[in-house]
Amino acid sequence: MQQIESSKEIQRFALESRKAGKSIALVPTMGYLHDGHLELMRQARGKADLVIVSIFINPIQFGPNEDLDRYPQDLAGDLAKCQAVGVDVVFTPTREALYPESFQTSVEVNKITKCLCGAGRPTHFQGVTTVVSKLFNLTLPDTAFFGEKDFQQLAVIRRMVTDLNFPIEIIGVPIVRENDGLAMSSRNAYLPSLERKEAAGIFAALTQAKNLYKQGLKESETLCQAVQEQLDISIKNSFKIEYIKLYDADKLTEINGPITAPAVLLIAVHLAGTRLIDNLKL
Amino acid sequence: MQQIESSKEIQRFALESRKAGKSIALVPTMGYLHDGHLELMRQARGKADLVIVSIFINPIQFGPNEDLDRYPQDLAGDLAKCQAVGVDVVFTPTREALYPESFQTSVEVNKITKCLCGAGRPTHFQGVTTVVSKLFNLTLPDTAFFGEKDFQQLAVIRRMVTDLNFPIEIIGVPIVRENDGLAMSSRNAYLPSLERKEAAGIFAALTQAKNLYKQGLKESETLCQAVQEQLDISIKNSFKIEYIKLYDADKLTEINGPITAPAVLLIAVHLAGTRLIDNLKL
Fold it and tell me: Quick one: closest CA in B to A162, which residue?
């Protein structure tokens, strides 16, 4: 396994690999890798001749009062995990290399970025689509893998790839969960032990709502209300719900009233100062 | 020579050509080709195994009161010219194919797009960088050729390519002029014969200012003033100057006072309802 820091070098590697007829799969990450990331890598490993994992805490997708400065890092551990999964190249650029002082370009998806996470984090998705565009151009993948935990992010990236005609297949990978159901996330490390236990209530509440849906409860508002009530019961510590919404899973538009299209139940919760997101397809 | 309309087909052609080890040069145009375009194609022909010319009147780079609906077209003539220069593929997508109803992504260079043409055409460069990103991803060129008449556009595209790490070399090609000095432009066709003759005064005024500069006149404001005065003498019909500016040719920042850096004198003039631009490096 190679570690490459230089943008020029990774692009040269990608160009030469493609010229040699090798297929490339990219797994973009911000590091502090967990089993969710490793599942992306395993799927990538099964799909392409070469697997490139990028590890880069992308400053422009963080808002001014977010956790950029304390985002968890463990490069040595990450490299060991990548090696164990059979990754070929880990790309670890510096901030200065990706965003020199002269940098002034942005890539923006304009509509489906305004709701859900985009409502509370207005510059977030522009930061994501800009860095992902850069990573695509630097690593020239045939396929790129993203987790479904960031459901909106996945939809935004699919939209960008279609709109800008990137010759890349985007593959969404189902959420990997802890034993108690909590969706794996690097940010789970922020949670004190009591809140960590209670955080399992998020997936439990989504699951309960899905059961209600299966039993015939089809009103969007009632299902979202049921999630909220369940959380009020299961989480004793103070928490803040950013949103609980039912969305059309394909169009990423809100469903009001009865559910007809394939739907996804999405949630963002702040618990002990940590923002957690999760979702469940109904 | 092939003509390809389908985005999928041109991308497949590009992917297969690159896999076969062929280099690709792209010349993006809006059609109604003149000798300036043909010079881009000739240079592209000398540089790559395959030359792709795109012909697409890009609606999103036109403002609401601009000439989108009357922009000149001559596809049959254009194809004949491309063939004569030895172009391999002419890509002629439809508007619906490049901008379906669901389209919602934009690529924007944020600083150097606000001045000069960007001041009078606030959405123009975003339209250019968005369509050029699409064309880059559809045709996967090693090199792309742009005319220096659109000096700011060339700087904006270079900036975008650097910032987003496109693996593409951008080649600027010097302005091709009519016998009387007028910079070739598809929009010259709009000019009535009298105004067409007077339009030669634009280049004459730039040239005179360059001579003054060579003779020792180094103040930006004085040189711009000299251009304006010369135009007032040489053009009898009513015309409107949008800007006459001296800019740092590399950084694309305005030069006030004495000229030190490599400079370019830029002008935009409205003559008989037609917007003409030109520039000259000092």
Answer: B103
What is the per-residue pLDDT across B171-198, written as a single tens digit (0 to 9) for each?
999 999 999 999 999 999 999 999 999 9
In B, which residues are within 8 Å of A164 by CB distance? 105, 107, 130, 133-134, 137
The distance in angstroms from the start CA to the end CA of chain B is 40
Residue B219's domain is classified under what CATH number?
3.30.1300.10
Mark yes or no for CB contact B18/A21 under 8 Å: no
Q: Which residues of chain B have pLDDT under 50?
A: none
pLDDT the model gives residue A150: 98
How far apart are alpha carbons B40 and B150 in whole angstroms? 13
Same domain, B60 and B164: yes
Is there a contact between A268 and A242 (Cβ–Cβ < 8 Å)? yes
Digit-coded pLDDT (tens) for A194-252: 999 999 999 999 999 999 999 999 999 999 999 999 999 999 888 999 999 999 999 99
| Domain span holding position A17 | 2-173
Annotated catalytic residue A124: no
Strand partners, B170: B144
**Per residue, what are the HEC states of A106-156?**
EEEECCCCCCCHHHHCCCHHHHHHHHHHHHHHHHCCCEEEEECCCHHHHHH
B154 contacts B148 by C-beta, under 8 angstroms: yes
Contact predicate A150/A138, CB 8 Å:
no
Look at the alpha carbons of B251, B257, B259, B264 in this order and tell me if their dihedral is positive or negative.
positive
> Both B27 and B106 in a single domain?
yes
* pLDDT number for residue A238: 86
Classify the phi-psi angles of B141: left when phi > 0, otherwise alpha if psi is within -120 to 50, otherwise beta: beta
The contacts of residue A76 (CB under 8 Å, 6+ apart) are none
Of residues A235, A253, A250, the one with CA closest to residue A281: A250
Amino acid at A116: L
